[in-house]
């Protein structure tokens, strides 16, 4: 125990950490066997299971001085749950591999755990198991599982010429918040001005439109993905997988007034945030042209025959399918 | 491209790395949708899915100077596949989150990938998906999934007084190899003497007795786990979860002559390796006393009523349920 009565995870030991985490987590109705054994057992009533994994590393995907433990937990879970709904499935559970520095406080770990729990609760999922290890920086490996409930999965490869392209959820918000934090580190530490607050919050904690994934599957979406590399690049992924051309209409892309004002302050192009920002976890999908879309979906482009290279582009802009490479420095 | 034509993963970029990995991996018959979309889709014919995750971090769980990329891939997969068979299930697939330093060579990555592939092939599983990220050290998050094939899962909590305790697989081999490598770093670099080779190999690449997991479930095992914290501590986990006392017979614990000789060279107690070594991924299980066990299982102890604290002990030795805390420095 250190002075000031701060409990460090290094003081708790492996089983102490596991007990502390497990004690904060409810077990879901679809969890047959939760944490504490070699493996968890989940119901898979559909007879198929959808699975996606992501690895988040401190200093690359998040910073402990820019985001709270709670927000990091919410975001790490959101990122994976979003991948599951992007297939048209309902998330059932996540398992988490956690690398922790010994000096991390137990209080921070509690907040992280609560973040996982609360984000999962939004979709009726729970944390079914995990593993912890000692690490110099915080490492979070989240694997999410989901059930298709009898639905046909919506992959990236089914877009057809004539389809419309639509998005659900926010675009560019997290990128705007990150741009603000990067440009104004000192200001951020002294408090965030009102203008940027909404966007900084969006960077810290995405709000994926979870219900829209299964909804799109039910509406007959021909292709769908979670926008994680930026809209233009991800539309390019659909184009490449489907062998089609996608043209996005910049007039249809939502640039809220507050975002335009923040961009003005920072000397940035807000449409660039909308086209290349990837952390909002919006959903992009293609639908047959005769589908009547509910208000949660906004039509932003068209699918046509690939004349030459299958790619995505924006009317009136030169760049095509560019975006974020998670692997670059 | 760097001089000497060594391709670094930093040169390949995210999609180059993903293409390179995917190109080396066959897709399994139970994989409905493999890598390349937001999520993979696997068959789950049992209607339940077994899932386990582990996080391995360079410098703590493996060293690139002590193990090849191939061996690290084999070991990372083995560790998780073993957790699945320890429930009595058949592994179907793994997904892998991979953190890579930019300076890692593409050749090393190929070897790692082949290691995942070949270890999975031993149990009929494949790599169904993954994620890559930039990291200062190699980070490997493996999540394995499995199918119970209609069998009742074998948890840690079903041991009953009167049951026998049995193990399948090797005990103490990896610990002996690690002790040798730790004591004789220079000798290891100059080549491993014959005496230690078998054990160093066991440290680098475990050989879990995969078939014995579903076999034990079929034989009516009342409790089972994968020995990953050391036999004594893991027997203690069964004792605690089941509310029983477990007594192990040191005479029944296999200490091969070569291990005894290596222990003599290093001034170590070989029974300590057998009781506390955790990386061989042996299976420990309890069975009703009337079960006729096949030769793959060796009876090593007895289950009795817990008189006071539910724990495991070894006849004639003072320590109880001690072992490895993965979280300590």
UniProtKB/TrEMBL annotation, chains A, B:
Pathway: Cofactor biosynthesis; thiamine diphosphate biosynthesis; thiamine diphosphate from thiamine phosphate: step 1/1. Mg(2+) 5 binds at residue 229. ATP binds at residues 130-131, 156, 228. Residues 36-146 form the PurM-like N-terminal domain. Keywords: ATP-binding, Kinase, Magnesium, Metal-binding, Nucleotide-binding, Thiamine biosynthesis, Transferase. It catalyses: thiamine phosphate + ATP = thiamine diphosphate + ADP. SUPFAM superfamilies: PurM C-terminal domain-like (SSF56042), PurM N-terminal domain-like (SSF55326). Catalyzes the ATP-dependent phosphorylation of thiamine-monophosphate (TMP) to form thiamine-pyrophosphate (TPP), the active form of vitamin B1. Belongs to the thiamine-monophosphate kinase family. Reaction mechanism of ThiL seems to utilize a direct, inline transfer of the gamma-phosphate of ATP to TMP rather than a phosphorylated enzyme intermediate. This is Thiamine-monophosphate kinase. It comes from Planotetraspora kaengkrachanensis.
